[in-house]
Design goal:
about 140 residues, mainly beta, OB fold (Dihydrolipoamide Acetyltransferase, E2P), 2 domains, 5-stranded antiparallel beta sheet, 3-stranded antiparallel beta sheet, 3 helices, Various polyols ABC transporter, Mo/tungstate-bd_C_term_dom, ATP binding, membrane
Length: about 140
């Protein structure tokens, strides 16, 4: 059975649909599976619209990293990329804190197990393969 369900609730759409259409100003940005939309967005709009993404400038297009891929204060191995920033604020969300940081003039988000102090310096690490690129 085919059904069309219109919602602004991202979690609901991603959990119940086989295919999702992301629209922007009346135009289709991406029509794909929920997994493809989240892990392989076709545009910067989709990357920013679904979940929280941290944008990196890149000469080959736009690059981003999902906030759950960032690890504060500890590299997993010698290949991890490192980003320096300063804490803006943190909000307690039960099992973790949702943290905002200034990284190279961009507002980034990541999860932390302890509340950081605003103004505190932070080192964030991620695996190179966790950087996703969108070619415009």
């Amino acid at each position: 059975m085919t059904a069309v369900y219109v919602t602004h609730d991202q979690a609901e759409a991603m959990s119940m649909a086989d295919k999702v259409v992301i629209m922007n100003a009346g135009q289709i940005e991406q029509f794909d599976s929920p997994e493809a939309i989240y892990h392989h967005p076709k545009s910067e709009f989709v990357a920013q619209f679904i979940g929280k993404s941290n944008r990196l400038p890149s000469p080959q297009g736009h690059a981003f990293i999902r906030m759950e891929k960032l690890k504060p204060h500890a590299a997993a191995n010698d290949n991890d990329l490192q980003f320096e920033g300063s804490i803006i604020n943190a909000r307690f969300q039960g099992q973790h804190y949702l943290v905002e940081a200034n990284v190279a003039g961009e507002k980034w988000h990541f999860f932390a197990s302890q509340r950081p102090t605003p103004g505190e310096a932070v080192s964030l690490y991620c695996a190179p393969e966790d950087i996703q690129r969108i070619h415009l």
